[in-house]
Amino acid sequence: MTREEILEGLKQAVLSYDVEAGKRLTRQALDSGLGPLEAIDEGLSRGIKVIGDKFQAMEIFLPELMMAAKVFLEAMKILEPAILAMGEGRPKRGVAVIGTVKGDVHSIGKDLFGTLLKVAGFEVHNLGVNVHPGKFLEKAEETGAEIVGLSALMTTTMPGMREVIEFFQAKGIRDKHTILVGGGPVTETFCKKIQADGYGQTAQDGVGLANDFVQRRRTTP
After folding, report:
1. CA–CA distances in Å: residue 95 to residues 83, 107, 146, 201
2. Chain-centre distance of CA 96, in angstroms?
3. Residue 221: what pLDDT?
4. Do 74 and 124 belong to one domain?
């Protein structure tokens, strides 16, 4: 199969909820010399984007969303060792706490972000899904995290991001941590509205922001 056929096949595996095809094509992608991030960005994630759009438009519902997520997650089990190998030997860059906000149980984008942060040299504390604002604050303070990453996949749970930021503000520690937001329905406009520090459209964008903010914090008197 050509590069284009493999990538299109990965997209279609997600759209057809075909776990076995997803795993087979993922192995084929690596065997053919495709980079693991290329398989994600140009294959699997394209399928997830379509699924997310259909979910928001109520053309599909939670069971279909979860089936598509399973294809992605099973493929990630194959890709993750290759991704992590890209970061071997790198010095520690910083500490990050990540999680999906209260009321939301979706983890794909958040977990990919966490994996790529590890590649970049971050110590990552992944709090999982449906995380209360207090849990973000507790772990950020405990670990001295420079970065706090908030994820949401549904418009109905996006207000949970504002709740986290307001909770940090109420406790008087907002300026100690850089808060980044991301997820399918999240936008740059929403990021500014809730006074988050940055918005990543993709997991890679988020890692770039995390690196930039850590560098800025350490060079600012």
Report:
1. 19, 20, 6, 21
2. 12
3. 62
4. no
Beta strand segments in 49-146, E: 94-100, 122-126
In 10 A of CB 5, how many CB atoms? 11
Instruction: Indicate if 64 and 36 belong to the same structural domain.
Output: yes
Instruction: Identify the CATH number of the domain in which residue 66 sits.
Output: 1.10.1240.10
Range of the domain at 27: 3-85
Q: 213 and 119: one domain? A: yes
Long-range contacts, stretch 167-174, CB < 8 angstroms, 24+ apart: 167/133, 167/134, 167/136, 167/137, 168/133, 168/136, 168/137, 168/140, 171/137, 173/137, 173/140, 173/141
Query: What is the pLDDT, as a whole number, of residue 80?
Result: 94
CATH number for the domain including 159?
A: 3.40.50.280
Instruction: Name residues whose C-beta falls within 8 Å of residue 2's C-beta, 6 or more positions apart in sequence.
Output: none
Domain total for the chain?
2
Burial pattern 65-84, b for ≥16 Cβ within 10 A else e, equals: bebbbebbbebbebbbeebe
* Tokens describing residue 124: 């990552």
Q: What is the pTM of this model?
A: 0.86
Which of 85, 111, 142 lies at the terminal end of a domain, its last residue? 85
Low-confidence residues in the chain, pLDDT < 50? none
